[in-house]
Amino acid sequence: MTMTPPSRMLRMLAAVAALSVFVPSSAHADSTTDTSVAPSTTSPSVTATSPSTTTAPVVQNAYVPPVRRLPRVRIGSAIVVLDEQRVYVYSATRRLITTIPVSTGLDDSTPTGSFKVFSKSEQAYFTPNPGERMKWMVRFTKGRQGDNIGFHGIPYRVTTAGTVQIPTPVGLKPVSHGCIRTRDVEAQWLFENMAIGTPVRVVQSRRG
Smallest Cα–Cα separation from 49: which of 125, 100, 116? Predict the structure, then answer.
C-alpha cells in the first residue's frame, strides 16, 4: 500500500475544512428574501382631522342658491345644522338674516354643542399639511386632536402651476376635516360681520 506523505495529507485536510465553511447547513442556509425593511404600502397614521374614505350621506332635495352679496350687519348668532348642511345666521334681535350652504366634517368630525368665536384670521392653513390653505377663518371651538374648528372659505392648494381649489360640494354633503366650509364670498361676509364672542351652535338637526 502506498502511503500518503504527512505534508500532503495535511494540505488535503485543510482544503476540505476550507470548503466546508462555504456549504450552508439546512438551519442556516442563505435566503433570497431581502431582510431589509421594505417600504410599507399602508398609509401613514394621520390626525383625526385628515380626510376619510368614508362615503358621506348626501342631503336630499338640497337647493344650493347662487352666490350673492350680503349686507353689512352685526351678526348676533349662528346655528349650523349638520343634517341640512346649512348655517342659519341671525341678528342680535334673533331675526334670520340669511341661510348659507356649507360642507361640514366627514365622519362626524364637526363637534356639536354651543360655542363662541374666539379668533379670526384672513389667511390660515391646515396644520398637518401647510400646503392646504384657506381664507377667512373664524374659529369657535377645538376638534378631536385639539385642532381649531371654524368657518372658512373653500380650501386650496398652492402648486407650481398656481392655486387649485379643493372640490367642495357645499350644501350637499360633509367632506371637510371638521371645519365648516363655505363659498369664499360668504366666508368673507361671516369673517367681516362676526365679532369675537359671537355665539355659534352646532346641532345635528333642527328637530333635536
Answer: 125
Residue whose cell numbers read 368673507: 188
**39-68 average pLDDT score:** 50
Per-residue pLDDT, 45: 31
Cα 190 to Cα 176: distance, rounded to the nearest angstrom: 18
Rg (CA), the chain: 32
Contact 136, 130 (CB under 8 A): no
Q: Taking Cα atoms as reference points, which of 168, 116, 123, 156 lies closest to residue 139?
A: 116
DSSP 51: -
Domains of the chain (ranges; CATH) run 75-203 (2.40.440.10)
Would you state the pLDDT for residue 41? 35
User: Would you place residue 145 in the very low, low, confident or very high pLDDT band (cuts 50, 70, 90)?
Assistant: confident
What is the C-alpha separation between 100 and 87, in angstroms, rounded? 5
Residue 32 binned pLDDT confidence (cut-offs 50, 70, 90): very low
Show Cβ contacts of residue 202 under 8 Å, excluding neighbours closer than 6 positions.
Answer: 79, 80, 82, 110, 111, 112, 113, 115, 141
Reported as a single tens digit per residue, the pLDDT across 6-18 is 555 555 555 444 4
> Residue 119 in contact with residue 207, Cβ under 8 Å?
no
**Does residue 182 contact residue 151 with C-beta atoms inside 8 Å?**
yes
Decide if pLDDT at 200 tops 50.
Answer: yes
Asked if residue 78 lies in contact with residue 89, where contact means CB atoms within 8 angstroms, the answer is: yes
